[in-house]
Amino acid sequence: MISEIISxxxxxxxxxxxxxxxxxxxRKNDEFRDIKIETGVIAKAEGxxxxxxxxxxxxxxxxxxxxxxFNDRPNEGVLMVNAELSPxxxxxxxxxxxxxxxxxxxxVVDRSIREAGVMDTKKLCxxxxxxxxxxxxxxxxxxxxxxxxxxxxxxxxxxxxTAKMPTYDKETKILNRENxxxxxxxxCTVVASTxxxxxxxxxxxxxxxxxxxSVARLTVGIRDGNIVALQKGGxxxxxxxxxxxxxxxxxxxxxxxxxxxK
Length: 262
Prior knowledge:
Structural class: alpha+beta
Helix content: 25-40%
Strand content: 25-35%
Number of domains: 1
Distance between the termini: 39 Å
CATH class: Alpha Beta
CATH architecture: 2-Layer Sandwich
CATH superfamily: GHMP Kinase, N-terminal domain
Mean pLDDT: 94
Number of helices: 6
């Protein structure tokens, strides 16, 4: 798989650069790329954001509707996270039904949001057993150059924090999207830091080629300085020391990542 994406020469260069703590783009192993966030970019969405992380760019939109609750949770609303990968973002992505990569991306972002308790779904209940708010977070990479997990989490959070709730008349069952003023009920904000194992080193915020050169990946979700979610990827193993190091670094990075979400 690696040889189909990057040459053996580039693979060797990536490994040598990581070993020397000076990656090919000039960063040290524990440095994120520059991050920029712009909100309110989709007119028809209740909330939206574009996150640029180096050359990776992700757009997220929040759409809110009314539906019936799940039978086993009659007094809880629904929060769903979806990801779609377009061939325009990277030539390895394929159009059509979400593949394994898109499903994993959505699940990792969803896990951090859900495990952090970003949204109390009971606050989304309109009438128990009858009507609840359904909050959909959809995000799409516009350009994929690695670490869509952290960029997607940032985009989802920024979109949620700017989202406004429609109003709903229980008698007429009419949903009104005019003059939306009330914020989405959020209890906290979560961010994620993803590390790739290249050689025996763990690098944060890997580029696409660094991901291909890695043998394992670890995404850490952080809320208020506390670890709330972990997701490992790749076939390689991680030592307890490498995991502990990544967790410590993720907590440190969370403080800077939160500064980007207003």
